[in-house]
Amino acid sequence: MARYLSEIFYERPKQWGFRGDPYFWTYLEEYFSKIEFPYSESRFVDDIYRIFLKVSGTQLQVDTMVKVEEFAHGGMTSGGLSGEFWIERGIPLLVDRYREIVKQCE
């Protein structure tokens, strides 16, 4: 049975950086819904950085704070993406889940 990278996104974090981060999470989940394991871990992480740049027009760095209109749904930090969240919590969480699935597939 095929397994898709999107399954590592099913359980959402309890805390986010800014209000746009959950929408970017969903965007990534949809993007990876068509990509099957096996898939390179480094390519997976590179894809997240590339997609972040594509949707925000800004390089993903710890101090990145950028608003993406597509993810704006009301509120003071609506549409905001937090580089700190993605680099320090989001991506490491996804990579841990990725590694767990790779172990299960071996």
How many discrete structural domains? 1
SS strand fraction: 5-15%
Largest sheet: 2 strands, antiparallel
Estimate the global geometry from the Cα principal axes. Answer: elongated
What is the SS-derived class? Answer: mainly alpha
Strand order of the largest sheet: 1-2
Which helices and strands, and how do they pair?
Blueprint: H1 21-31, H2 41-56, E1 65-67, E2 80-82, H3 83-105
Antiparallel strand pairs: 1-2
Please explain how this structure is put together.
There is one protein chain. This protein has 106 residues and is mainly α. The protein has one domain. Helices cover 47% and strands 6% of the residues. The chain is built from 3 helices and 2 strands. Strands 1-2 form a two-stranded antiparallel ribbon. The longest helix has 23 residues, at 83-105. The protein is elongated, with a radius of gyration of 14 Å. The protein starts with 20 loop residues before the first helix and ends with a helix.
Task: List its traits.
3 helices, 106 residues, mainly alpha
Describe, in short, the structure shown:
The chain has 106 residues and is mainly alpha-helical. Helices cover 47% and strands 6% of the residues. It has one domain.
